[in-house]
Design goal:
globular, mainly beta, nine-stranded mixed beta sheet, single chain
Length: 147
């Protein structure tokens, strides 16, 4: 099983600000050999170095992108809002699984107009951010404005 716990904080020493979130998929079935725990820390930053817009919906998906010429399979999805900050948004995600399928990546969407779809002006990942099968890792994920 994959399960997610999320804590949103600002990069500012040891200080942490917790933010409530809603998950549209609390758990997702995934065939794994043994149970295990993996922590994934996402440092979400704007591609151009601008602050992320406070109060806007922030969606993170862990996707299996290993199939060629096929849509990605969403393994886990969570939604929260961007907290007031002028700094990087840190998003710790705890996944309960033995290993990550090869081809698993992180996708992020900051929904500027709140319609739930990627559209002009939204911020999304435009680079691949592979998730390794190790117990603890940190990824810096850059989002870029959709033109």
């Amino acid at each position: 099983m994959i399960s997610g716990d999320i804590e949103l904080s600002l990069l500012e020493g040891e200080d942490t600000t917790n933010v409530d979130f809603e998950s549209s998929a609390d758990t997702t079935s995934l065939q794994v050999c043994d149970g295990g725990s993996m922590e994934l820390f996402l440092n979400i930053v704007d591609f151009g170095g601008q602050p992320l817009p406070a109060g806007k919906p922030l969606k993170v998906e862990i996707r299996d992108t290993s199939l060629a010429d096929a849509p990605a399979v969403t393994l886990h999805q969570m939604t929260t809002v961007v907290p007031p900050t002028t700094r990087t948004v840190v998003l710790p995600v705890k996944l309960e699984l033995a290993s990550v399928p090869v081809g698993t990546t992180v996708w992020v969407h900051v929904d500027m107009d709140g319609d739930g779809r990627v559209g002009k002006g939204d911020l999304v990942t435009v680079e691949s951010y592979p998730v390794a099968s190790i117990p603890r890792q940190t990824l810096t994920v850059r989002v870029k404005k959709v033109g």
